[in-house]
């Protein structure tokens, strides 16, 4: 599993680098609007905007770090451990945050970008690419989720069979006992593997979105735009981190892998702001170019598909069909209310960001 975690983290880094390259390619693209239509800011306003952006880097770094760390620290708190009822409510709240992020924050942005008048004469202007890419992304996530789980389940089953053969030869009189023990261990290992896959695929979807919103803030030159974005995105990163941190804590990763994943999430939005600042100041970045609109819209749609699938299939469905939850009406209602509260918290942020 350590090799799997290392490979998966490496692939996540590759995705991130590819994203930066795609955004860099868009820098030299032609604008859909004339240069006169862009806001002209004074030197003083530009300096204030730069100061706000630097402050937002620190703010988002703290907000994301605190959000993703709370569930990990919560593992040390008895009330937040998996065997407690409160854990179901915390997990439902986090799932509500992630589900709302996909439906309310990311997918509408994807539709808005890909239905831009600039793309009227392109394939995106004649076909609903946002929904199509989100669907393909969800299907791709399903394939990765199931194939990876099946692969590691087969690998574990082969190892279990070899152990059973040796045990059967040495302890023929205890075959029945060993078989049941191995079966229980196999079930637990498969569930743990699935949680690890879920946490890492989920991080990919969240990281891509975090980079995009960071670039959007960093490329902006309007103080009136930057100020509300700083506050809204701080809460946004905090709640997203809360949802992701809950999944990472369930995965029971090694300390090194946990720290890497938490750090990777925490720095992506600040790094995105830095990239946006570089693009806007020295690389001639034009957010309204056809290529930039296409890249941003496609990435947003793909992120939305990943988050919607993961929240519904991997986070909510297993808990809400859990016999422990269904046999307890009050716990069932409390988990559902937590889900609504998580979704409502993120929905309110859509007013400002």
Give the SSE map:
Layout: H1 2-25, H2 43-74, H3 85-114, H4 123-126, H5 129-170, H6 175-219, H7 223-251, H8 255-282, H9 290-320, H10 323-326, H11 329-349
Low-confidence stretches: 34-39, 175-181
Structurally, how many domains make up the residues? 1
Mean pLDDT: 76
Rough outline: globular
Overview of the structural elements:
The protein is built from 11 helices and no strands. The model is unreliable at 34-39 and 175-181 (pLDDT under 50). Helices cover 82% and strands 0% of the residues. The chain has one domain. The two termini are 38 Å apart. The radius of gyration is 23 Å and the shape is globular. The longest helix is centred in the middle third of the chain and has 45 residues, at 175-219. With 353 residues, the protein is an all-alpha fold.
Features:
transmembrane, zinc ion transmembrane transporter activity, 353 residues, Zn/Fe_permease_fun/pln, signal, mainly alpha, transport
Short structural description:
The chain is mainly alpha-helical. Helix content is 82%, strand content 0%.
